[in-house]
Amino acid sequence: MTTLTHPAAPAARASARVRLTALRYLGPNWYATVMGTAIVASAGAGLPLEIPGLRAACVVVWALSAVLLAVVLAARAGHWLYHRDQARAELLDPAVAPFYGCAAMALLAVGGATLLVGRDVLGERAAVAVDAVLFGAGTLLGLVIAVAIPYLMVVRHRIGPADASPAWLLPVVSPMVSAAVGPLLVPHLAAGQAREALVLGCYALFGMSLLATLTILPLIFGRLVAHGLLPLALTPLLFLVLGPLGQSTTAVNQLADVAPGAIGAPYAGALGAFAVVYGVPVMGFALLWLALSAALVVRAARCGMRFTMTWWAFTFPLGTCVTGAAGLSRHTGLVALEWLTVALFALLVAAWCAAGWYTLRGVFSGALPAAPRAPQPARARTT
Predict the structure, then answer these.
(1) 329: which residues sit within 8 A by CB, 6+ positions away?
(2) Is the torsion defined by CA of 232, 233, 237, 239 positive or negative?
(3) Taking the alpha carbons of 51, 53, 55, 58 in that order, is the dihedral positive or negative?
(4) Nearest to 290 by CA among 216, 234, 346, 240
């Protein structure tokens, strides 16, 4: 008896092998596409002025972020299923392991955007349920990563002073994102213990992330001063420093909004004052770092910097500055802060469009995801 083989079968198997091979180099940094997209929707929803069509555009962007989350989660599951050796190698690689913090932040960012924007499509009850699930999962995962990655850095990674990177902030910023997203759920809880517990829990998350950030920031600046510029491809990572600055400002303002309904006097009023007293100086430092980072990125571009996935570092951290400035404008009433919010949002949209366009082009051309290349070193300009 002759067994007939369908002629398309070998081609189908070959195509499946190509897809599985592509998953090998799909690292945790791909969650940044989800974070950067979701923050555009959240930031747009919180702008202090009304722009015709903006709300509808934010709904579309939120839906895109939800689809991206599902796709990246599935792809990363395939990565762990079919390429466990590579997945373990990523955890032991000090340059890649910190990006596991992006997974928790992607869940939290989409959850927050769902309650802010997605409720227009899902309805408030379903949006609250989705946000609650993603908030719980993202917070739990973020706490695990905030301990596990620093543990690996101490015990397994071999790191020198010149290896300090802004990416080290990623694992410890996750709790700060939880602190900023958690207040959205407070009004949907029963008054009393539940609300107070969530508010104070968010302040605890705020504190653990803030203090961890303060231990890492001097290492990052010290590395720049003592060892010079980052490799060209890694220069956009400097924008990651904006993340804890903008997100902490967002968190204290969001918590101040819900504190009167969760905590009694005199603490509610004190937390409202703290939002401004803390947020204004931190936003000032964020603008200083934004100017410094932008100058270094421009220099890197003139030296030949090309697109890599690090460009997504321009999006989420900048988006947290938008939401932080919006919170300050609510609590101070300053028109100048409203204009700052709009200007930062315009910059965020431009960064998101650039990163998204080059990412799509890389995916369809087959250049992404691909085996990583050695970072191109920074070059001194002669002119």
Answers:
(1) 48, 337, 338, 340, 341
(2) positive
(3) negative
(4) 240
Structure token pair of residue 200: 């104070």
Cβ atoms of 232 and 251 closer than 8 Å? no
Using CA atoms, how far apart are residues 275 and 352, in angstroms rounded to an integer? 28
Q: Residue 348 has what DSSP assignment?
A: H
How many other C-beta atoms lie within 10 A of the C-beta of residue 118?
Answer: 27
Q: Are 110 and 34 in contact (CB under 8 A)?
A: yes
For 252-299, how does the pLDDT look when each residue is reduced to its tens digit (9 = 90+)?
999 999 999 999 888 999 999 999 999 999 999 999 999 999 999 999
Got the DSSP string for 328-349?
HHHHH--HHHHHHHHHHHHHHH
For residue 369, say if its preceding peptide bond is cis, omega within 30 degrees of 0. yes
Query: Residue 153: CB partners within 8 Å, gap ≥ 6?
Result: 94, 97, 159, 168
Structure tokens at 300: 């890197």
Q: Is the pTM of this model over 0.90?
A: yes
DSSP assignment, residue 237? G
pLDDT-based confidence at 312, cuts 50/70/90? very high
Query: Is the four-CA dihedral 272, 187, 176, 294 of positive or negative sign?
Result: negative
In angstroms, the CA 203 to CA 359 distance is: 36
Name residue 283's amino acid.
M
On the CB side of 52, how many CA atoms lie within 13 Å of its CA? Answer: 0
Residue 83 tokens, joined? 């390429």
Smallest CA-to-CA distance from 201 within 184, 182, 214 is with 182
Q: What is the pLDDT of residues 131-168, one digit of tens each?
A: 999 999 999 999 999 999 999 999 999 998 899 999 99
DSSP of 50-103: --TTHHHHHHHHHHHHHHHHHHHHHHHHHHHHH-HHHHHHHHT-TTTGGGGHHH
Separation of alpha carbons 264 and 203, rounded Å: 16
Give the Cβ contact number of residue 143 at 10 Å.
16
Token digits for 320? 């947290």
